[in-house]
Amino acid sequence: MTTSLAILAILVFWLIGAHNRLSKLRHRQLNAFSPLSHALRQRHVVALTLAEAARNLRGAPGEQVEAVIAAAHRATAANHAPQIRQQAESLQRIADAEEALGQALDTLVHTLHDLSFGATPDPAVSELLRQRHALQGQIIFAAQVYNDTARTYNDALTVFPTPVAARLLRFEPAPAFLHALVRPAVLLDSEQAAHTRPAALEDFTTSRVPSKARPGDLI
Asked: Which regions of the chain are under pLDDT 50?
């Protein structure tokens, strides 16, 4: 009887310890999504402001402007979906919406680049493009941090005998943020872009994956 109680006590203390450790790791994983979400929302604001500024430029195609506005609104809606940090499907919807926004932005920005060829770029548009360029590096870094914390939490779930406790305590694996949304930002002054591009973007330009990323971090 005494032996049984001792074993039971050990199991209870082990479950409590496993719960506290997994809770701490999961809390870090959830908190790590906030900077990424914030950077993405900033990107939406810049995209909408850029589209409105481009609307007033002579020769700017209205369909491209409207495409950016629509894509930015869809990306904002996806980023505000409930429980986005817990559901892999929601994270994938965010990634898909951001990729669509990136494609619409690229099309508009390339058009603006062509319109400004041989002329003085509009200062407001140039500033917005530089803000977009800076946000690209922030998004890469924030996504890397989030995926690292999610991987640490998921790795802890696989170390025996933690899987037993995870099933009993209902700890689920954390989804990774897999995306192809980050692309080199196009500035109206392409020569300046070559001199100001962050190192993370240089890595991404050549390989589509930051040099320090591990397989599965960013696609």
From this structure: 181-219
DSSP codes joined into one string, the chain: -HHHHHHHHHHHHHHHHHHHHHHHHHHHHHHHHHHHHHHHHHHHHHHHHHHHHHHTSTT--HHHHHHHHHHHHHHHHHHTSTTTTT-HHHHHHHHHHHHHHHHHHHHHHHHHHHHTTTSPPPHHHHHHHHHHHHHHHHHHHHHHHHHHHHHHHHHHHHSTTHHHHHHHHTPPPPPP-------PPPPSSHHHHHHH--HHHHHHHHHSS-TTPPTTS--
Q: Answer yes or no: is 108 within a domain.
A: yes
Q: How many domains does the chain have?
A: 1
pTM more than 0.85: no
What is the domain extent for residue 8? 2-207
Tell me, yes or no, whether 212 lies in a domain: no
Q: Is position 219 within any domain?
A: no
Instruction: Please report whether residue 171 resides in a domain.
Output: yes
